[in-house]
């Protein structure tokens, strides 16, 4: 404790919640619908099977319906249809299973793997991959339109594979064992003509390459060439920016396969893509795209009006000349329908969504670039014997949960790329609150309203990214003391700009983590801090009420850092008294041992040294209070420690317990015990 920790992002399933509880002894409409539709899956008519799959797919988007289908072995019913002789049935069956995996969560995905969904899924993926080139030459006809069934089926199947592999390690093992990578990469070759399929493949690749060393050997030169080709594609649409970002993340995941001599240029290319994504103003893009949508819809209405007038005039001419051959109205509409020349429905919204997803993904990957797992013994030997070992030790720490790695420790070339691409500057820009005009547009447009959550997510990821950079970068690389003071003012404005302190848990966790890392960096370099004691106490009093443990840990840590700085100053005893009382109350009353331990750790820092600290400690009776609390803390650790906290947390708490004993002994040597 005493230092903030970097957070490593892992790709989470899109629907982590499990299925709703089932009702005993009841057969409601969901159960009846499930039974009826599952029975129709066995119908000899392909159209009936397709209808049943489509209906199931729609129902499975409602979480409360999922248990009724799971109870009736929906996976074993739908799985064989992935290899149905009807391509339409294959597509709708894959779509239904995709929705089940996305909306059902971990338990349902585990159940799908247990029920052997991977066998037909792998067979389908390989068959589609084999037939992709032939199908490209002669797309199947569907209701009078050219529909590339193979690509559409592949898109559904890839999304299903992505969802399952994110949730289940057995599925990932099967992916490796069955050589699915080759088939998946074959789909990626369609990126120039089917960017949606390519994005699905890229999402899947980023998921299956994360923490999967067994897959690395499959990325030969040919596979890497495919990824590099996509990453360098010049198209500038938001979807292509998302595609390049996802591929960049995949390449980062497989960086161990890249020759050391090429690592610098590869990381430079990755950071250039992230820089391109982060440079775009999402708020302005929303405003521009919303206006484009309005214009498109207006043109569509005008075109429809002109078409109707044309039909009316044509009908009049036909009625006057009965000998004239009548032209089918439907065909006339299709040939004169200018909407066919316009982008697909809601393409503007899809573009903005792609941009925000790209920005969030880029920020999460940058966080992971600054943070890796604990190295193995071999890696430690390699690091300790390298020429950069001293620099590495200066810019890293190991505190239980992970080892932080600065871009500086990779190479000077990589660090230069990090700065040359203006990554820190662009991250800082993303920490600001979203554009108010863009927010207003989203608030008043139901289909655009979900973008608000994405805008807020980008801001939170940027704050977390900022935290990681602060923890691992040298002060000079961050712009020096003045830049850090400006950053402190910026974070203060984010927290205190409104009449009431923020209550959003995700934002509070992100902003307090960033602020804690910043104050920690400033304190270590004796840089004066800009937040007033009143602001700090207001933040801590609000933050300690949060239901989020990380927020409570952060505000206690912030107070400890600031208090330790104040203890070195003059005439600060009164402020130190307030800080000490606050921390003592948290230590004694906090329900979480982790937060209580952090409060004790903060007390040790604040009252470690200094005349003002000694004066304040006497006035709040710090020593007798801690002596009285010591056996209580020990007893709580014995009773609550096992089963409730991780091994790392218990290790840290053991250190706090030991430091509490030492701190009491140290205070007693100062002769401060009341007589």
From TrEMBL:
A Pfam short name: TPR_SYO1
Matching SUPFAM superfamilies: ARM repeat
GO biological process, one term: ribosomal large subunit biogenesis
Gene Ontology molecular function, alphabetical: unfolded protein binding
Region (Disordered): 1-34
Residue spans of biased composition, Basic residues class: 1-13
UniProt xrefs under CDD domains: Syo1_like
InterPro entries in UniProt: ARM-like, ARM-type_fold, Armadillo, SYO1-like, TPR_SYO1
SYO1-like TPR repeats domain residues: 413-669
Similarity comment: Belongs to the nuclear import and ribosome assembly adapter family.
Protein's name in the database: HEAT3 protein
Organism, as annotated: Tychaedon coryphoeus
Lineage summary: Eukaryota, Metazoa, Chordata, Craniata, Vertebrata
Gene: Heatr3
């Amino acid at each position: 404790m005493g230092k903030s920790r970097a957070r490593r992002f892992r790709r989470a399933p899109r629907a982590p919640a499990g299925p709703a509880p089932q009702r005993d002894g009841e057969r409601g409409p969901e159960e009846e619908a499930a039974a009826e539709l599952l029975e129709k899956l066995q119908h000899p008519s392909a159209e009936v099977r397709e209808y049943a799959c489509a209906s199931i797919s729609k129902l499975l988007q409602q979480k409360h319906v999922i248990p009724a289908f799971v109870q009736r072995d929906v996976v074993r019913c739908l799985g064989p249809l992935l290899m149905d002789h009807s391509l339409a049935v294959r597509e709708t069956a894959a779509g239904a299973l995709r929705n089940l995996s996305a909306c059902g969560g971990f338990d349902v995905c585990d159940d799908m793997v247990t029920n052997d969904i991977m066998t037909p899924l792998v067979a389908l993926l390989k068959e589609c991959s084999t037939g992709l080139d032939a199908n490209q030459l002669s797309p199947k006809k569907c209701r009078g339109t050219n529909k590339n069934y193979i690509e559409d089926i592949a898109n559904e199947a890839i999304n299903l594979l992505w969802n399952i592999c994110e949730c289940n390690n057995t599925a990932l093992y099967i992916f490796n064992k069955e050589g699915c990578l080759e088939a998946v990469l074959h789909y990626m070759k369609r990126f120039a003509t089917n960017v949606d399929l390519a994005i699905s493949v890229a999402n899947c690749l980023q998921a299956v390459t994360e923490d999967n060393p067994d897959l690395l050997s499959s990325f030969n030169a040919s596979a890497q060439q495919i990824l590099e080709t996509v990453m360098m594609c010049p198209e500038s649409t938001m979807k292509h920016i998302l595609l390049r970002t996802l591929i960049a993340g995949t390449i980062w995941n497989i960086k161990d396969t890249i020759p050391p001599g090429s690592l610098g240029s590869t990381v430079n290319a990755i950071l250039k893509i992230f820089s391109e994504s982060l440079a775009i103003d999402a708020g302005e893009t929303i405003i521009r795209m919303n206006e484009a949508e309005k214009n498109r819809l207006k043109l569509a209405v005008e075109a429809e009006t002109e078409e109707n007038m044309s039909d009316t005039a044509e009908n009049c001419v036909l009625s006057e000349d009965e000998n004239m051959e009548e032209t089918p109205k439907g065909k006339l509409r299709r040939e004169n329908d200018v909407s066919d020349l316009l982008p697909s429905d809601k393409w503007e919204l899809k573009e903005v969504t792609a941009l925000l997803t790209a920005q969030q993904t880029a920020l999460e990957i940058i966080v992971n670039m600054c943070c890796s797992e604990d190295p193995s013994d071999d890696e430690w030997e390699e690091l300790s014997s390298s020429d950069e070992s001293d620099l590495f030790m200066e810019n890293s720490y190991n505190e239980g949960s992970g080892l932080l790695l600065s871009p500086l420790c990779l190479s000077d070339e990589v660090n230069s790329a990090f700065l040359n691409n203006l990554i820190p500057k662009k991250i800082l820009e993303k920490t600001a609150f979203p554009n108010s005009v863009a927010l207003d547009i989203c608030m008043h447009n139901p289909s655009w309203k979900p973008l608000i959550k994405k805008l807020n997510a980008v801001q939170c990821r940027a704050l977390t990214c900022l935290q990681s950079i602060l923890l691992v970068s040298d002060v000079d690389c961050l712009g020096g003391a003045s830049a850090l003071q400006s950053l402190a003012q910026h974070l203060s404005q984010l927290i205190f700009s409104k009449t009431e302190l923020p209550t959003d848990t995700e934002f509070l966790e992100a902003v307090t983590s960033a602020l804690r890392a910043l104050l920690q960096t400033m304190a270590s370099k004796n840089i004066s801090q800009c937040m007033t004691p009143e602001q700090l106490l207001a933040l801590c009093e609000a933050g300690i009420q949060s239901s989020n443990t990380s927020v409570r840990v952060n505000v206690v840590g912030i107070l400890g850092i600031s208090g330790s700085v104040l203890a070195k100053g003059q005439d600060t005893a009164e402020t130190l008294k307030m800080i000490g009382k606050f921390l003592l109350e948290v230590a004694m009353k906090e329900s979480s041992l982790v937060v209580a331990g952090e409060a004790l750790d903060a007390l040790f820092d604040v009252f470690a040294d200094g005349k003002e600290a000694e004066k304040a400690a006497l006035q709040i009776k710090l020593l007798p209070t801690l002596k009285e609390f010591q056996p209580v803390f020990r007893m709580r650790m014995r009773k609550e420690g096992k089963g409730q906290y991780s091994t790392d947390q218990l290790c840290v708490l053991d250190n706090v317990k030991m430091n509490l004993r030492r701190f009491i002994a140290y205070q007693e040597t100062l002769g401060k015990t009341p007589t």
